[in-house]
Amino acid sequence: MNGDKLAIGAVAALAALATLKRRGSRSLSADQEAALKGMVDSGDPDQIRQALELVKTLDAKIKLTVNLRGAELKGVDFSGLNLDGAIFRSANLRNTNFSGADLSSTDMVDADLIGANLSNASLIDANLNEADLRRSDLTNVKASMASFVRADLQQADLTGADLSFSSLRRSRCVLANLSGANLSDSNLIHCNMSRVNLSGANLRNALMGYIYMPNADLRGADLRGADLTGSIVSGTKFDGVKYDERTIWPAGTNDLADAPVGVAD
Which DSSP state fits 212? Predict the structure, then answer.
């Protein structure tokens, strides 16, 4: 019965909103707002997309909070949607399409995002602690101030990503591609970055202490002000890196004469 009422309410909301759109109106009645919220709360991806797209189209002044904690959303298309503040904690988001979506301040703790497409999405101030992002596409993602603590980013593609002021403490980034990424002022302490590609990355003022980073590629990276105290970097390529007197190398010295080959500022 509740499902029938929800379906009827959704149809009524869509019809009413279509009328509003034709009239150029942006105001919604209490019943229309309730119907839209009911569509979002249904947990049905199709109804959620319809509701969010209608609000976006109308530019209506209404906040729809999406709560899909623990939901089964494998392969769902959320591309381009405004999901600011949405809750996806512990949800199954394998191969889900979030490309171009606004995921600012979302809760994705412990979410399964294996193979997900988050390219060009906004993850500013999002919480992805302990999320599984193996083989995910995060190219050009905007994730400043986001948290990836203990997240699994193995073989993820973060080319050109903005991770400034973010935290990746104790995350696993084995074979991840972070070439050209902005990791300035980020916290990478105790990460597993074996064979990671950080070529051309901006690591200015990054906390990189006690990282396991053998056979990594940091060619052309900016390490000015970075702290690599205690990190394991055997076999890592440092050709052409930028550094200055504030750069702390794994040996714990600021003596540039002992530093790897690079370009002093």
Answer: B
Place of tokens 């070529």: 199
Side chain identity, residue 126? A
> Looking up tokens 């500022």, which residue turns up?
265
Report the distance separating Cα 78 and Cα 40, nearest Å: 13
Q: Which of 48, 50, 79, 78 is nearest to 66 (CA)?
A: 48
d(CA 3, CA 155): 41
- Spell out the long-range contacts of 4-10 with Cβ–Cβ below 8 A and sequence spacing 24 or more: 6/38, 6/39, 6/42, 9/34, 9/35, 9/38, 9/39, 10/35, 10/38, 10/39, 10/42, 10/47, 10/50
pLDDT digits (tens, 9 = 90+) for 144-196: 999 999 999 999 999 999 999 999 999 999 999 999 999 999 999 999 999 99
Question: Side chain identity at 197, as an amino acid letter?
Answer: N
CA 196 to chain centre: 18
Place of tokens 């400034």: 164
Beta strands 262-264 and 241-243, pairing class: parallel
By C-alpha distance, which of 134, 198, 187 is closest to 165?
187
pLDDT value at 230 more than 90: yes
- Whether pTM exceeds 0.70: yes
